[in-house]
């Protein structure tokens, strides 16, 4: 009997150039979604925990990087630094 594991194709089954092309396509789509955030007003971006500058920075990243992941990482790092500075002032 054939199981799902027998049928499922793993990424290692594909040549490197196909894996790279799929990753670049995925990153391109993700970057376009990040660019959509540029149309949001400052309050909405603040609610999401990002700044307009961070969104614009992420939208300009090369396709070799996932813009959404990089945006998330940068905004979390900034917020942690802001908290550390705020608690140091107390």
Number of strands: 0
Instruction: Detail the poorly predicted runs.
Output: none
Count of alpha/pi helices = 5
Oligomer: single chain
Q: State the distance separating the first and last CA atoms.
A: 66 Å
C-alpha Rg (nearest Å): 19 Å
Protein model, in words:
- The chain is an all-alpha fold.
- The chain has one domain.
- The protein has five helices and no strands.
- Helix 2 runs antiparallel to helix 4 and helix 4 packs antiparallel against helix 5 (about 65-90).
- It is elongated, with a radius of gyration of 19 Å.
Blueprint of the fold:
Elements: H1 4-7, H2 16-36, H3 42-48, H4 52-59, H5 67-89
List keywords for this structure.
single chain, 90 residues, mainly alpha, 5 helices
Concise account of the structure shown:
By secondary structure, the chain is an all-alpha fold.
């Amino acid at each position: 009997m054939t199981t799902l594991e027998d049928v499922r194709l793993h990424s290692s089954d594909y040549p490197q150039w196909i894996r790279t092309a799929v990753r670049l396509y995925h990153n391109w789509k993700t970057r376009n979604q990040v660019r959509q955030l540029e149309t949001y007003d400052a309050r909405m971006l603040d609610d999401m925990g990002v700044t307009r500058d961070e969104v614009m920075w992420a939208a300009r990243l090369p396709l070799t990087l996932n813009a959404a992941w990089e945006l998330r990482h940068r905004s979390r790092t900034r917020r942690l630094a802001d908290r550390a500075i705020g608690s140091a002032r107390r």
